[in-house]
Design brief:
By secondary structure, the chain is α/β, with parallel strands linked by helices. The chain contains 9 helices and 9 strands. Strand 2 (about 45-50) and strand 3 form a beta hairpin. The longest helix is centred in the last third of the chain and has 18 residues, at about 250-265. The structure holds guanosine-5'-diphosphate and magnesium ion. Magnesium ion (MG) binds next to helix 1.
């Protein structure tokens, strides 16, 4: 019997905000790891999502959407994209076909790198075949792709196919991470993200962009996991909004987040949330470092 060689490598998922990068990563992993919302700029960090089998290990990087930075938080977000391009074996360039926006930033970035790129046309469920084909031609004329594939990250259409294509570009080599490991980030990172997701889903306008969540303590006993987390906002007014009348909003955020966290940790969870005003954290090196933005 021929032994199949083991393959392992890094794949960076790149694209504009809201293209469906995080939804795609969750589909590729077959589980909800990273948070996804209808609001742009939900993802702020580079996050590894690791897909392992007996014969392969693909380390995907979910990244923040490509934007032109306006404040320090966004500068750090864009820095994490550059970083995830440096060590990649393959780039998945994700474009949402139901939207048209200037692609010059994506094209420029793609031209700068020699790493093979697969064009992933996402949200095929939302447009006609004609439009899909037109978009594929447009993009293929601008960038040198090794493959192009339409998918729906939402319903999973063609995602297995994309995985097969991806494997062709993964070099032979031993696994980088333990085969059981699903991410490079600790559990408390994902717990904070799940709370942040609920704020994005429940609160309006600019508030979520000014919000950061930090898990303060994480204590496991026989019965449950007790988690305390602080929601940092930039103004007193935002603090009032997050808490809501009779703490209505904060309770809702807590209840929704707890359900997700319980599923994620496969354990019963007691979640305690605090809200704190940390003025100007989005432009403060001190705060950003404390919140884990390198
Ligand atoms: P990201 O900013 O690129 O990470 O995008 P997200 O994964 O957070 O998704 C942004 C929004 O697009 C969410 O509301 C998703 O449900 C939606 N979305 C993602 N993939 C698809 C898709 O294939 N079809 C449709 N119709 N919506 C999608
Ligand atoms: Mg995302």
């Amino acid at each position: 019997m021929n032994k199949v060689p083991h393959r392992s490598g890094f794949v960076s998922i790149i694209g504009k905000p809201n293209a469906g990068k995080s939804t795609l990563l969750n589909q590729l992993l077959g589980r909800k790891l990273v948070i996804t919302t209808p609001t742009a700029q939900t993802t702020r960090h580079r996050i590894f999502g690791i897909d392992s089998s007996e014969n392969h290990q693909i380390v995907y990087s979910d990244t923040p959407g490509l934007i032109r930075p306006r404040y320090k938080l966004q500068e750090r977000m864009m820095g994490s994209i550059s970083q995830s391009l440096e060590d990649a074996d393959l780039i998945l360039l994700v474009i949402a076909v139901d939207e048209s926006y200037p692609e010059d930033q994506i094209v420029k970035l793609a031209e700068k790198t020699e790493i093979p790129k697969i064009l992933v046309l996402n949200k095929m469920d939302a447009v006609s075949e004609e439009k899909l084909f037109k978009r594929m031609q447009e993009m293929a004329a601008k960038v040198d792709f090794v493959e192009a594939i339409p998918i729906s990250a939402l319903n999973g259409h063609n995602v297995e196919k994309l995985k097969e294509l991806t494997l062709n570009y993964i070099p032979e080599g031993p696994a980088y991470f333990d085969k059981e490991q699903v991410s490079d980030r600790p559990e408390r990172f994902f717990v904070a993200e799940m709370i942040r997701e609920k704020i994005f889903l429940l609160m309006r306008q600019e508030l979520p962009y000014s919000t950061e969540v930090v898990v303060e303590s994480f204590d496991e006993d026989e019965e449950q996991i007790r988690i305390e987390a602080t929601i940092h906002v930039t103004t007193k007014q935002h603090k009032g909004m997050v808490i809501g009348k009779g703490a209505k909003n904060l309770k809702k955020i807590g209840t929704m987040a707890r359900k997700d966290i319980e599923q994620f940790l496969a354990n019963s969870v007691y979640l305690n949330l605090y809200v704190k005003v940390s003025e100007g954290w989005k432009d403060s090196d001190f705060h950003l470092r404390g919140f884990g933005y390198q």
